[in-house]
Amino acid sequence: MSLIKEKILAFMREEAYKPMTAEELALIFDIDKKEWQKFYKILDDMEQDGQIIKTRKERYGIPERMNLVVGRLQGHSKGYGFVIPDKEGEPDIFIPAEGINGAMHNDRVIARITRAAIKDKRVEGEIIRILDRANKRIVGRFEKSQNFGFVVPDDKRIYQDIFISKSNMGKAKDGQKVVVEVTKWPEKRRNPEGKIVEVLGSINTPGVDILSVIKKYNLPEEFPQEVEEYANAIPDEIPEAEIKKRRDLRDKRIVTIDGEDAKDLDDAVSIEKLPDGKYKLGVHIADVTYYVKERSPLDKEAFKRGTSVYLVDRVIPMLPKKLSNGLCSLNPKVDRLTLSCEMVIDENGKVVSHEIFESVIKTSERMTYTDVTKILRDKDPELMKRYDYLLEDFKLMEELCLILYKKRMQRGALDFDFEECKIILDEKGKPIEIKPYEREIANRIIEEFMLVCNETIAEHMYWVGVPFVYRIHEDPDEEKLQNFSEFIHNLGYILRVTREVHPKVLQDILEQVKGKDEEVVVSTLLLRSLKQARYSPECTGHFGLAAKYYCHFTSPIRRYPDLIIHRIIKEHLKGKIDQKREQKLKKLVEEASKQSSDMERVAQEAERETDDIKKVEYMMERIGEIYPGIISSVTSFGMFVELENTIEGLIHISNLTDDYYIYDDKHHCLIGERTKKRYRLGDKVVIKVVKADLETRTIDFVIADEYEEE
């Protein structure tokens, strides 16, 4: 099937091709008349997928030859939007409000280009067809009047309210959070219509806020019964016959090092110093594929979810608890099946040899980042006594970690030292503390060990030449880097942007700003200039890590790409990949790369949103309080300020009352017309909290008066 599709596309891309009817194409491809219906179905599928376009005259062609672009619509609260093309590297297309034509945020659409890019203006277009509707159900606040109502969507990128007739209100009350099913899509001057299918509760009821996010992103709250039953039927004991097939590492000192509250422990490490001074590092990863067989209900569900989602108050796991916290989790002092990668690493951090094999382990201890850091940094006597038999291992781990880090930095990997935040909730889900998350030596040990293992596996499998899922990070956009270069030039730093900029050049800039006032702003802007990492069947390298080969191998309990590559590695080790299997794997890794990249974005958005909700809730109790902060973003309507606890709020331009301020986008600053006072990205300011709104999830600040600062 995919072969005939490829042939059709190749034919239509030829210079001499003119749009043809289905019949003409069937004749050209010499399709037997009995097979015409099947052929027409292929054309229909390709049209539905946006690969080809059918004109009004029933003729087929490819979008790029017809001035058309297929992609996803990113809506905006003001009614306009942008089409993000399916084709990597193509520019986004601006769609003015009058060109939206009934499409909604996240719909898959075809846009016609109406104006090419000129000077500072981007490509403009209008939507001519909607291929796939994304918002069949929408979460929002119900506003009721006597004979009808409206649902105001939580997602402001869906800019139209949904009309609800009296008969479709159900039991919803005014002001409640609800789920609405769209029954009629919007048209040019008409709002969408819908019916309320679920009432989530009052906005102020504990738990409704997070539940709204779960519903909004369509995250699964439970596993289907079939999946739970399949998982529960898996025996707890590992058959002796399986252990005999594997390398037995149960008498080896192997530990897990994780956060205190982690329950899905999928990686363990071991270390020893060889007589020649080299290090032998073992990375032992839970062998999830032993339990999750291809095409089983577990596998299909894991593929659908793509990843575990870590919300502020709960985890939505990729696999049922029996596996994620039980059978697959490398819990201490119990037998567990693993896939191991043992690497011999020299004193310069070079992996001189490696071996990948199926194993069985029994971890000695379940260590936490906090305890290992207390042992290595604080020399905590109580912990040192308790784990005396592991002290030498921890010292070796620290030694090797610093060697690997130094090697990575020398080759130009980008090390962004951004503080993540830890949100602590009480038993009712109320935020009681928000603080930066410390990245201590123990975290860095695991980070470096997983990175070197991921690279070793990726390079090994690249040269084996079988289909695989790589983790790639493409080179940054030249235009964005050019803007970054201009901005830092004003701060006295020089970056020469060439067609192929090496990450080492950018890392040098990060080194130069370390510890200076402008460090946060330069790092933030550089990060915004980079593309997002994603999964791909092609190994094109990882720019941010300055790595030629990279994959995700170390978390198969919570990421589908890791799971599928474990399967491929094991099949390769057993010599089971023949030509037929290779063709099948090609299709599987393509689908897994796309699905996992998409689900990763959904998870990130949902995680960010639940964090934002709790940050707003936290600041609602702190109205009127004064905090120091740093300007993290400057826009035409004001500036965002980030506090030390990572909470961000907006100072609207109308609240800068001492002058009339003009936005200078080139220099990322606001300039007072009369006073020439500047508020620049990265400047330190002292703010007062004036508003925190849970409904809009926004926090408002004003510049604190001098007497208040004191």
TrEMBL record:
<dbReference type="Pfam" id="PF08206">
    <property type="entry name" value="OB_RNB"/>
</dbReference>
<keyword id="KW-0378">Hydrolase</keyword>
<comment type="similarity">
    <text>Belongs to the RNR ribonuclease family. RNase R subfamily.</text>
</comment>
<dbReference type="InterPro" id="IPR012340">
    <property type="entry name" value="NA-bd_OB-fold"/>
</dbReference>
<feature type="domain" description="S1 motif">
    <location>
        <begin position="624"/>
        <end position="704"/>
    </location>
</feature>
<comment type="function">
    <text>3'-5' exoribonuclease that releases 5'-nucleoside monophosphates and is involved in maturation of structured RNAs.</text>
</comment>
<keyword id="KW-0694">RNA-binding</keyword>
<dbReference type="InterPro" id="IPR040476">
    <property type="entry name" value="CSD2"/>
</dbReference>
<keyword id="KW-0963">Cytoplasm</keyword>
<dbReference type="InterPro" id="IPR003029">
    <property type="entry name" value="S1_domain"/>
</dbReference>
<protein>
    <recommendedName>
        <fullName>Ribonuclease R</fullName>
        <ecNumber>3.1.13.1</ecNumber>
    </recommendedName>
</protein>
<dbReference type="GO" id="GO:0003723">
    <property type="term" value="F:RNA binding"/>
</dbReference>
<dbReference type="GO" id="GO:0005829">
    <property type="term" value="C:cytosol"/>
</dbReference>
<dbReference type="InterPro" id="IPR004476">
    <property type="entry name" value="RNase_II/RNase_R"/>
</dbReference>
<dbReference type="Pfam" id="PF00773">
    <property type="entry name" value="RNB"/>
</dbReference>
<dbReference type="Pfam" id="PF17876">
    <property type="entry name" value="CSD2"/>
</dbReference>
<dbReference type="InterPro" id="IPR011129">
    <property type="entry name" value="CSD"/>
</dbReference>
<keyword id="KW-0540">Nuclease</keyword>
<dbReference type="InterPro" id="IPR001900">
    <property type="entry name" value="RNase_II/R"/>
</dbReference>
<dbReference type="InterPro" id="IPR013223">
    <property type="entry name" value="RNase_B_OB_dom"/>
</dbReference>
<dbReference type="InterPro" id="IPR011805">
    <property type="entry name" value="RNase_R"/>
</dbReference>
<dbReference type="GO" id="GO:0008859">
    <property type="term" value="F:exoribonuclease II activity"/>
</dbReference>
<dbReference type="Pfam" id="PF00575">
    <property type="entry name" value="S1"/>
</dbReference>
<dbReference type="GO" id="GO:0006402">
    <property type="term" value="P:mRNA catabolic process"/>
</dbReference>
<dbReference type="InterPro" id="IPR050180">
    <property type="entry name" value="RNR_Ribonuclease"/>
</dbReference>
<keyword id="KW-0269">Exonuclease</keyword>
